[in-house]
Design brief:
Structural class: mainly alpha
Strand content: under 5%
Low-confidence stretches: 282-291
Mean pLDDT: 85
Oligomer: single chain
Distance between the termini: 37 Å
Strand order of the largest sheet: 1-2
Length: 291
């Protein structure tokens, strides 16, 4: 029994991500949008900790994999969708009235795309296919691409309540509100729709592994350290946005570079829906027993 306690550690980290996602939604509903957005970004930092901790403790399990998927759906699928909808409902001059259903529809599309992306990733990972790069934006990356620009808009929009601390340098100027609203919040609706499409598209997204080339190795390490430092200190969403959309540009480059490589061909969503891996394992086991 004592040896099983080590399995609690990675699973508690996973549950922390889920709980932070729910807390983020609660803060946004209470009007503390910028705190909610920083908390949503903090969830992305926990994404790798549970898996790496489980491997170091030799505490990997199928239970942990399933729990991680459920937590990811809340933290990176539901939370960004709700945060954008609540922000748009309050600060957008276009979607805060009778047209709010458009923002709601896009939020639902984002949540649905997250669920499809997660289910597709799980079955592809179990099947062992297409391990070179990710297909479509991973959910933590998509969440960061949605939350970071919204956080940056809030930083320069005084009615949002964002207050920059001493280390969080601010470019002089602000977004002038009209009746407490600004059109940049409206732009978050089509942007979230594009990112949702990016999750279920055939876009080739590189896995964040440590490259062998010294320059690329340092590039990855420095950007990762900067990202972790700035999220933990709640500093400079401008830099975080720059890092995030560098990743988008690299993904488009990978898609173009791998377009003719057979080993990098994408698995269509409808094909992934037909996978019956567990049933296939049972059939193989029954066949082995008969033999």
């Amino acid at each position: 029994m004592a040896s099983n306690l080590k399995y609690l550690v990675p699973n508690l980290i996973t549950l922390s991500s889920l709980c932070l996602g729910v807390t983020s939604i609660t803060l946004a509903a209470r009007g503390q949008l910028h705190h909610a957005l920083w908390l949503g970004l903090f969830c992305t930092l926990l994404d790798k900790f549970d898996g790496s901790t489980a491997r170091k403790l030799k505490a990997t399990s199928s239970f942990g994999v399933e729990l991680d998927s459920l937590a990811d759906m809340v933290a990176f699928g539901v939370t960004p969708a709700v945060l954008v909808y609540l922000a748009v409902l309050r600060f957008s001059p276009h979607f805060s009235g009778d047209w709010h259903w458009i923002a709601l529809a896009v939020s639902l599309f984002y949540a649905a795309a997250s669920a499809l992306r997660l289910a597709k990733f799980n079955v592809i990972a179990q099947s062992g296919e297409f391990n070179q790069v990710f297909q479509g934006f991973p959910m933590p990356v998509a969440a960061g691409l949605v939350i970071t620009p919204l956080l940056l808009i809030c930083k320069y929009f005084e009615p949002s309540g964002y207050s920059a601390h001493l280390a969080d340098l601010r470019i002089p100027g602000a977004l002038s509100p009209v009746d407490g609203q600004h059109f940049l919040f409206s732009l978050m609706v089509p942007m979230m729709a594009l990112i949702a499409w990016g999750m279920i598209s055939h876009l080739k997204v590189p896995k964040l592994l440590i490259p062998k080339t010294p320059f690329l190795r340092w590039w990855v390490l420095i950007h990762a350290l900067v990202m972790y430092l700035f999220i933990l200190t709640r500093t400079s969403p401008e830099v975080l946005l720059y890092i995030g959309y560098q990743f988008v540009a690299i993904s488009f480059y990978f898609t173009w570079k791998l377009r003719r490589q057979p080993g990098a061909s994408a698995v269509p969503m409808l094909t992934a829906m037909t996978y019956q891996l567990e049933f296939k394992r049972r059939e193989d086991e029954q066949f082995s027993e008969k033999q």
